[in-house]
Design brief:
The complex is a heterodimer of chains A (1059) and B (445). Chain A is of the alpha+beta class and 1059 residues long. Helices cover 35% and strands 20% of the residues of chain A. Chain A has a 5-stranded mixed β-sheet with strand order 4-33-32-31-30, with no helix packed on it. In chain A, strands 5, 6, 34, 35 and 36 form a 5-stranded antiparallel β-sheet that branches. In chain A, strands 9, 10, 11, 12 and 13 form a 5-stranded antiparallel β-sheet that branches. The longest helix of chain A has 24 residues. The two termini of chain A are 81 Å apart. The longest helix of chain B has 28 residues. Classes of the chains: A alpha+beta (1059), B mainly alpha (445).
């Protein structure tokens, strides 16, 4: 393995760096002369989080700087010397590429865990998953587990097997109470066989409890990810060597993220294309467990690296010019939750574990317990997570848990005071918890960063409890990775990068101050690219799915390094893939601040006009590099009315088009408002400031919309290697083939000519039928007659006068309750009332001397129709449970009164209009259930409906049958009065039934169709036939219409006819 | 289930129930809350979502994405569509929508290249009246904006209007905001007072000027009020004390400063002690008083800049205080941020010399024993010697002397000292050192 740093090189040790450090360190000692006003309140937080947009549109507090500063009048904003806590301007950091760059080939050893994808809150899904996908564990496990240890055979006992014979003897001798069902053991055995996969071995109650416990744990894991807090990605800047910036990137890889890589990378922050060179071979250490956290710090002349796994912690040292050297490994009894390297003293680390204790670990010496807390610091946060960090004093540590953080002096046991607590003072929201705490020694010797799921706080340990600065970071999931980058000059900002595990979010925060001036945040929160949003290449759906899945795994680490103009951010995902992205400082923003280095940086704005014209046309296709961005935007702004805009819109990327169109609209609006010389303004946004009170607001250059060609190539290579792996795997998977040629052989040779002819004719008639869209009826074919089992005769409920039968008939019609009420005489009162009412009505009717019979029929049809079809229409059973007495129609009215008479014959017997009965449209049905089904179907063929639905076809029907529904019902009524009539029709009905069957037969048995029979009834054909046709066509053709007409009907159970 | 404990207020023994604040804290059931993501409603709620809600949610998401990526113009476009959410009929949702529009709108205006002050005014005015719940907050932000853009008079007007605002029952949040509004109102009064003062030719005119006096009275009433509230009020205290001093009310000023520094209800603010110390120093208080002030500060912030001053004060005082000076300077050098500070090392050397002459070597040894391990690895490693021999030879010299005084002769650190100073012309160096620290004897190497 090649060494990390070339051994021969021993250049002067970062002279300039140290000087900077010295100055910084001394400056850190001064405390701001004035702090922003802040309330100091006692008590728990009460603020309810309502939305996640608090981070915008607020200045926080303001104060006035020194009077002399005000008189300087360096910038417009501080004319009166006032300054806000949240500054709106800041450095403009523009992503060089719109997507992240895969830094290394994908970690092929790591497979994405494809566990249950549901959230821990979905308890039933988890139970289901266990039963379905782990059935071998959930069912009959005991037998399987014990089976091999028991021997049921009598012959000879194997070793380490218990013989059941002896066992029985033993049990007998013990006079143990036997199972009482032993005599039935054969049955028990059978039942066991039968129910094996139904009755689970683990009692559901116990299983549920355990699962709940596990899910609670998992939920916490998901919410806070205590394991991965801190992040398993480190970056140690090495000294400049021959003008190259080098850094040692430390990241885990391998199947379980258990091999630690020290990778020397070369950072090229050249103006044109900043890049990270990873051509050096990494130095790999294989560890015993997954790497959870990597903490690195530069102390004196060497970098110290701490690596935390679940129960082990290890320390490495990287000296300039030498390869990384492992120092020591420690093991903890409880899960380790935090490991941090001291930035002050070489070889000191601080460790915290779930036992609640924190230790100072000096390499080569024993561990010293700094603090131990069995409970949480400020309230019961129910969390075993502990975090420990260093502070400005090498012997004072920050001890944090979910409820807050304390500064603990390791030299004395009881000396500690609050650094931060979840409470009103910090303006916390209720339910807020500490996610991670970080000592920002590089940025400011006394500053600490504390993040919660809502906010990020900067705390000065000289002024504890009151946050020096607070951001609402507005991230979707809690940020558990934090990286800080110090300000490189007095006028630049310090940067904080926060990374969340769940959604891979990364945000950039900037702040300044903390020394002579109070802390101010610069620029609003900026979101950086994340790997899961970076898939811009066109892929086949399954490949895309695979790639998306790979990219969407949670983040596992975050680190960054910087130069004057560039910021390189590295992200690690749990799959072990490392991605990088570059941000470039847009120098125009420096106009708002007195920056001595501004002129030297002002390169791209100076050269922008020269590129402007030439690249305007080409930019749509080649918008890669940063310098090209400026003109691109200008081109767009100019092109709002010019035709060149259309050329840009021809870009295939729809999103880009949309955005541009939108922006161009914005520009139009803006230009209307502003009557100034916008032509020159658009040419050089920085040099000609908009005459507004607040001074020029620099136009933010747009970040590129499409990745550069090089990056596209890198991505396609990366994806290729990712997808090639699955392809290879797929080939190894073989499908089992089943030969079907002999099964499917058609034995046609044994048929004689006659048969052949039959088939032929059947086929032609079938095709004819299909052409004319008619039906192929069995009777119309030459097929042999069917063997039809006659349907048993109707059960006439009136024949069965016993109580049970009557009750059954009543309950079949839904009148079970009223039958009982009737039987027990409970409805006596209501009956009397109804009788009275009826008499009153009769009297009234008589008084009016108007016969409203026909009207009542019509309405009764609609009513009954809408209720439950013919059966209730004809039976007029009013006693059903669900039924009320909805209207005062006479047909319904006399129900309760006539019930004693109507009940026996009511629900079961089918009353049909005479016309239909005469045509044999109703089959005689054996059982009430089937009967109901039948009439349900047939109701759709009632003339009134047919008339509506199929006007053309039913003309014949109408001609033959009674002309109006009114008449029909009259007949029906008369039918009711003469039930014997129906029995006369039975024969016809049977005919009808047989023909009904035959109408469907042809499709089932095509071998026996009679050739010369007309398949479909024509105009002269008997009515019966047409009705049959309609009846059998109904399910397919009539349903939509009938359903529409049924819309208001209570949905009945879908019943099936016997055919 | 997991919140059952919290519901019934069951806590494991050993929790710090003795502290008075915590018992109050624990009455409230605490459930860990995730951020409420209005722009991404959960899938379960999505089925019930109406089209209006869906489109406003998607719009909010688009705004959020654009703003987080600093695409302000795109966000502005979306925001104009988002204003439709104000038609929301649910009161709670509407008030949230109000707040969101206010926040997002202001932020977008801040960054939009062509926004004018009038746009801000219109937005602030509309939003503060459409959601009265945020009235005070928006007023405050509005006046901040006016102040930062230089319109002090408008800001003053805004604040005084808001100060007299009353609406129904005040929430805690609103009442705090109103307090701040009053305070800033007074602060601006002070600011105007300052401007008047600077426009006057002599102090005589000032003190007799009636207009100024009325501003002073207005300001003092409001500032006094906010200062009695526990908190960090650096600008308010300073301005109040400034005015009091101007009108020769030293006693009141001292009282205010002492309350600000020593009241237990207030957070431990190093500035409070610094202000008191500076006040005392301005009015030529006796050294004992200064020392006692700085003693408290030393207890709170041992690494404070004033500690060097404290140390020199101690050296001039009585025996007991003198003894403390050693601890002070040792404590200072415990902090890595003072590690490379030459003055501090010189101070340590000086203190050690004085102690030695006074026969207090045992005190030095005692302090040294406490931090021997730390200092040897933090200050006197070989790498430090190498580095300082290249960068800061003076520091090297002083540190080496300290090391020798502390009895660390054979350290590898000292070898660099010998190397550097051995090579050079000793006489020259001696002269250099003598010039800088004329009190000290030149070192014999």
């Amino acid at each position: 393995m090649p060494g990390l740093v070339s051994a021969g090189a021993s250049p002067p040790i970062r002279v300039d760096h140290m000087d900077k450090m010295d100055k910084m360190d001394n400056r850190d000692n001064s405390f701001p002369a004035q702090l922003f006003p802040h309330f100091y309140l006692d008590g728990p937080p009460e603020l309810e989080p309502k939305h996640n947009f608090d981070g915008w549109g607020s200045y926080g507090q303001i104060l006035r700087g020194h009077a002399d500063l005000a008189q300087c009048g360096t910038e417009g904003a501080t004319l009166l010397g006032f300054k806000g806590q949240h500054k709106m301007e800041g450095e403009l950091w523009i992503p060089v590429e719109p997507v992240v760059t895969p830094l290394l080939p994908h970690n092929s050893a790591r497979k994405i865990p494809s566990g249950p994808p549901f959230s821990p809150d979905d308890f039933p899904e988890h139970m289901k998953h266990f039963y379905v996908h782990h059935c071998m564990d959930s069912f009959s496990t005991m037998g399987r587990l014990l089976g091999e240890h028991f021997n049921f055979r009598k012959d000879r006992s194997r070793k380490d097997c218990v013989s059941m014979g002896r066992m029985k003897n033993l049990v007998r001798r013990l006079k143990y109470k036997k199972c009482e069902f032993e005599h039935a053991s054969e049955y028990v055995h059978r039942y066991r066989r039968l129910l094996e996969d139904v009755i689970c071995d683990v009692p559901p109650g116990l299983l549920a409890e355990l699962l709940h416990e596990e899910l609670t744990f998992q939920r916490e894991q998901e919410q806070f990810s205590p394991d991965t807090t801190g992040g398993a990605l480190g970056c140690v800047p090495l000294e400049d060597f021959r003008g190259q910036r080098e850094a040692c990137l430390i990241y885990p890889r391998g199947e379980a993220l258990d091999s630690l890589n020290f990778h020397r990378v070369v950072l090229e922050f050249s103006e044109g294309k900043p890049s990270v060179d990873v051509s050096n071979e990494p130095l790999v250490y294989n560890l015993n467990g997954a790497v959870r956290q990597i903490s690195a710090a530069r102390v004196d002349d060497a970098a110290q690296v701490g690596v935390r796994s679940d129960y082990f912690c290890a320390a490495w040292a990287i000296k300039d010019g030498q390869r990384p050297r492992p120092l020591e490994v420690i093991q903890l009894k409880k899960r380790c939750t935090s490991l941090n390297v001291s930035p002050h003293v070489c070889g000191e680390l601080v460790v915290a574990s779930e036992s609640g204790a924190a230790y100072l670990w000096t390499v080569g010496k024993r561990m010293q317990k700094v603090r131990e807390e069995k409970s949480n610091l400020y309230f019961n946060g129910k969390s075993a997570w502990r975090w420990c960090e260093f502070s400005a004093h090498p012997r004072v540590m920050v001890f944090a848990d979910r409820t807050g953080a304390e500064l603990t002096d390791s030299r004395s046991s009881d000396c500690s005071h609050t650094l931060f607590r979840i409470g009103k003072t910090a303006g916390c929201k209720s339910g807020e918890r500490v996610i991670v705490s970080k000592y920002m020694g590089e940025v400011h010797a006394y500053h600490h960063l504390i993040t919660t799921q809502f906010s990020a706080y900067v705390l000065d340990e000289r002024m504890p409890s009151i946050p020096a600065l607070k951001w609402e970071h507005m991230m979707e999931s809690p940020p558990c990775f934090a990286q800080v980058l110090p300000a490189l000059g007095s006028s630049t900002t310090s940067k904080i990068l926060l990374g969340a595990r769940g959604a891979q979010e990364t945000v950039l925060l900037q702040y300044s101050g903390g020394r002579e001036q109070p802390c101010q945040s610069d620029s609003p929160v900026q979101k950086l690219c994340s790997p899961c949003e970076s898939l811009k290449l066109q892929l086949l759906p399954h490949e895309r799915h695979k790639a998306e899945k790979r990219l969407a795994v949670p983040a596992a680490g975050l680190t960054a390094t910087q130069s004057d103009d560039f910021l390189a951010v590295f992200q690690l995902t749990e799959a072990g893939d490392v991605f990088s992205q570059m941000l470039k400082l847009h120098s125009d923003s420096s106009g708002s601040r007195p920056d001595p280095s501004a002129p030297s940086r002002n390169v791209d704005s100076a050269e922008s006009p020269s590129i402007l014209n030439s690249s305007q046309q080409a930019q749509a296709s080649v918008p890669e590099e940063e310098p090209a961005e400026e003109p691109q935007q200008d081109g767009r702004r100019q092109g709002t009315s010019a035709p060149s805009d259309e050329e840009q819109l021809s870009d295939s990327d729809f999103e880009r088009e949309l955005r541009q169109r939108m922006l161009s609209q914005v520009e139009v609006v803006v230009n209307d408002v502003q009557d100034g010389p916008h032509a020159s303004d658009t040419e050089e946004p920085a040099s000609v400031p908009v005459p507004s009170i607040r001074g020029a607001r620099p136009v933010r250059p747009a970040c590129p919309e499409t990745p550069s060609e090089e990056l596209t190539l890198t991505w396609s290579r990366w994806l290729e290697s990712l997808l090639a792996e699955t392809l290879a795997k797929k080939r190894s998977l073989r499908h089992r083939k089943l030969e079907t040629s002999d099964v499917m052989q058609f034995k046609g040779h044994c048929k004689d000519r006659l048969e052949e002819d039959k088939f032929q004719s059947l086929r032609t008639s079938l095709t004819d039928a299909l052409k004319s869209k008619k039906l192929l009826v069995h009777g119309g074919t030459c097929l042999p007659a069917l063997d039809i089992t006659p349907v048993p005769g109707t059960v006439d409920a009136s024949d069965w006068q016993d109580d049970l039968s009557q009750r059954l008939s009543a309950s079949w019609a839904g009148g079970w309750r009223s039958w009982w009420e009737e039987k027990l005489g409970l409805n006596r009162d209501s009956k009397i009332q109804a009788l009275r009412r009826r008499r009153r009505q009769e009297k009234r009717a008589r008084a009016r001397t108007r016969v409203a019979l026909s009207g009542s029929f019509t309405s009764s049809v609609s009513y009954q129709d809408s209720l439950s079809g013919w059966s209730s229409a004809t039976s007029q059973c009013l006693g059903s449970d669900s039924e009320s007495f909805p209207n005062s129609q006479s047909a319904a009215e006399d129900g309760p009164l006539s019930e004693p008479e109507t009940l026996p014959r009511s629900p079961v017997v089918q009353r049909v209009p005479e016309s239909q009965a005469a045509e044999g449209s109703l089959p005689v049905v054996p059982s009430p259930r089937e009967e109901l089904g039948t009439c349900k179907r047939l109701e759709h063929v009632s003339p009134s409906q047919t008339q509506q639905d199929l006007p053309g076809k039913t003309s014949t029907v109408e001609a033959g049958s009674t002309s109006s529904p009114l008449m029909l019902l009259k007949q029906e009524l008369s039918n009711q009065l003469k039930p014997s009539l129906q029995q006369q029709r039975r024969q016809q009905q049977q005919d009808y039934l047989s023909s009904l069957f035959s109408s469907q037969e042809p499709s089932q048995d095509p071998g026996e169709v009679n050739d010369d029979t007309p398949l479909v009834s024509s105009g002269v054909a008997p009515l019966q036939r047409s009705r049959i046709t309609l009846a059998s066509q109904r399910p397919s053709q009539l349903r939509p219409a009938s359903q529409a007409s049924q819309a208001s009907q209570p949905q009945r159970k879908k019943s099936r006819m016997g055919f | 289930m997991d919140d059952l404990e919290a519901e019934f207020n069951i806590f494991p023994s050993g929790l710090n129930v003795d502290s008075s604040g915590s018992s109050e804290d624990e009455r409230i059931p605490r459930k860990i809350k995730s951020p409420i993501l209005l722009h991404a409603s959960p899938a379960s709620a999505r089925s019930k979502e109406s089209g209006f809600h869906k489109s406003s949610r998607l719009c909010l998401k688009a705004i959020r994405d654009a703003m987080l990526r600093h695409h302000w113009q795109e966000a502005a476009q979306y925001l104009s569509a988002y204003s439709q959410t104000l038609e929301e009929t649910t009161v709670s949702k509407q008030s949230v929508a109000c707040e969101i529009i206010w926040r997002l709108g202001t932020e977008i205006l801040q960054h939009h290249p062509n926004s004018q002050l009038d746009d801000f005014n219109v937005l602030y005015e509309q939003m503060k009246n459409s959601g009265v719940k945020n009235y005070a907050k928006i007023c405050l932000e509005h006046s901040f904006h006016l102040l930062l853009s230089g319109n002090i008079n408008d800001a003053k007007r805004q604040l005084s209007v808001a100060a007299s605002w009353r609406y129904g029952k005040q929430s805690v949040r609103q009442s705090l905001d109103l307090k701040l509004i009053h305070a800033y109102c007074g602060f601006l009064d002070y600011f105007i007072w300052c401007m008047k003062k600077s426009s006057m030719s002599t102090d005589e005119d000032c003190s007799s000027n009636r207009e100024m006096h009325s501003y002073f009275r207005q300001a003092s009433v409001t500032l006094q009020e906010v200062i009695t509230q526990p908190g960090v009020w650096d600008p308010f205290v300073l301005s109040y004390v400034d005015m009091l001093e101007f009108y020769n009310d030293q006693d009141e000023a001292l009282k205010v400063l002492q309350n600000y520094a020593y009241n237990k209800d207030y957070p431990s603010n190093p500035n409070a002690h610094v202000y008191l110390y500076q006040f005392l120093k301005r009015h030529e208080a006796p050294p004992a008083k200064l020392i006692s002030t700085l003693k408290v500060l030393h207890h709170l912030v041992p690494s404070h800049e004033l500690m060097l001053e404290y140390c020199s004060l101690l050296l001039t005082s009585v025996q007991e205080d003198l003894e403390e000076s050693l601890t002070v300077v040792f404590n200072l050098l415990d902090y890595p941020s003072w590690k490379y500070d030459l003055n501090t090392w010189n101070c340590l050397l000086k203190v050690m010399t004085i102690f030695k002459t006074k026969g207090l070597q045992h005190l030095i040894d005692k302090e040294w024993e406490k931090r021997k391990d730390l200092w040897l690895s933090m200050h006197f490693r070989e790498c430090h010697g190498r580095k300082e021999s290249e960068e800061n030879t003076e520091l090297l010299l002083v540190k080496a002397k300290v090391a020798k005084r502390l009895g660390q002769h054979g350290r590898s650190y000292n070898k660099f000292n010998t190397e550097v100073w051995g090579r050079c012309n000793v006489k020259e160096k001696k002269q250099q050192v003598c010039k800088k620290r004329s009190k000290k004897k030149p070192n014999s190497i």
